[in-house]
């Protein structure tokens, strides 16, 4: 049995444009192409697509995925390897969820006694985070900005990295608080917080209005980015994206 590119896009959630790109780079050629130019895929192709999507979820770049799939000797054993990595990622996300829940509890305790929130152990804020998983994809999608970012990161000390991570976590929590309180994304207080986010991004690369909007959309579209936001508060990725779009239109255009 064969499926058209439209069928595969509908079943998998991968856009037809992405499937055509995978064909162009040799990652997922269709089983055959009809006389009208339409691509058709068979069962082996769907299994290969499943492996591609699993490896993408694990943060593997397209070039490395091609190398892995083209040289795997046993598909079942390869899937076992992917399964082990997914279980490890599940455990990491579970740890991350516990990290955020612990932070919320500690901040809430401080509010209930009308004191400034206190974090008992600051190092607990960052348990379970893995910022390396997006590195290869960023290099593929934005090579110039990736080089700028890498140069900036190399200039950070260990304390600087830890400080940046603390600031990032705190900024996400503040945005979640605005969202839960019902503050509109164009509220001046929210936009002041977005300015903090924008300046943080500018430490590594300077996006134009379109690029900054694109970054916000990536927070929603990329399941790995979105998971980090959703662990803090459901709907936070969309709220952050919309607030960034307002900022881009009013401050960067």
From TrEMBL:
InterPro entries for this protein: DNA-bd_dom_put_sf, MerR-type_HTH_dom, MerR_fam, TipA-like_antibiotic-bd, TipAS_dom
Pfam families in the record: MerR_1, TipAS
Origin: domain of life: Bacteria
Keyword terms of this UniProt record: Activator, DNA-binding, Transcription, Transcription regulation
SUPFAM superfamilies for the chain: Antibiotic binding domain of TipA-like multidrug resistance regulators, Putative DNA-binding domain
Record-annotated HTH merR-type domain positions: 2-71
Keyword 4Fe-4S included in the entry's annotation: no
Signal peptide region: none
GO function terms (MF aspect): DNA binding; DNA-binding transcription factor activity
Protein's recorded name: DNA-binding transcriptional MerR regulator
Organism: Actinoallomurus bryophytorum
């Amino acid at each position: 049995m064969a499926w058209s590119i439209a069928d595969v896009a509908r079943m998998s959630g991968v856009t037809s444009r992405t499937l055509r790109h995978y064909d162009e780079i040799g990652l997922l050629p269709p089983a055959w192409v009809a006389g009208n130019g339409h691509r058709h895929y068979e069962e082996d192709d769907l299994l290969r697509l499943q492996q591609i999507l699993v490896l993408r979820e694990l943060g593997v770049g397209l070039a490395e995925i091609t190398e892995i799939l083209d040289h795997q000797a046993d598909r079942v054993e390869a899937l076992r390897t992917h399964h082990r990595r997914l279980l490890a990622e599940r455990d990491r996300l579970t740890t991350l969820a516990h990290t955020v829940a612990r932070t919320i509890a500690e901040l809430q305790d401080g509010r209930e006694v009308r004191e400034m929130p206190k974090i008992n152990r600051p190092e607990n804020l960052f348990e379970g985070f893995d910022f390396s998983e997006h590195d290869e994809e960023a290099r593929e999608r934005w090579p110039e900005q990736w080089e700028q970012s890498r140069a900036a990161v190399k200039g950070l000390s260990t304390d600087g990295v830890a400080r940046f991570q603390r600031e990032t976590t705190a900024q996400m929590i503040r945005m979640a608080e605005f969202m839960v309180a019902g503050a509109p994304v164009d509220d001046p207080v929210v936009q002041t917080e977005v300015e903090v986010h924008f300046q943080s991004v500018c430490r590594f690369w300077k996006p134009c209005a379109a690029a900054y909007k694109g970054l916000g959309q990536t927070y929603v579209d990329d399941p790995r980015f979105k998971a980090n936001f959703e662990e803090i508060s459901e709907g936070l990725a969309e709220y952050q994206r919309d607030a960034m779009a307002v900022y881009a239109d009013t401050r960067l255009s």
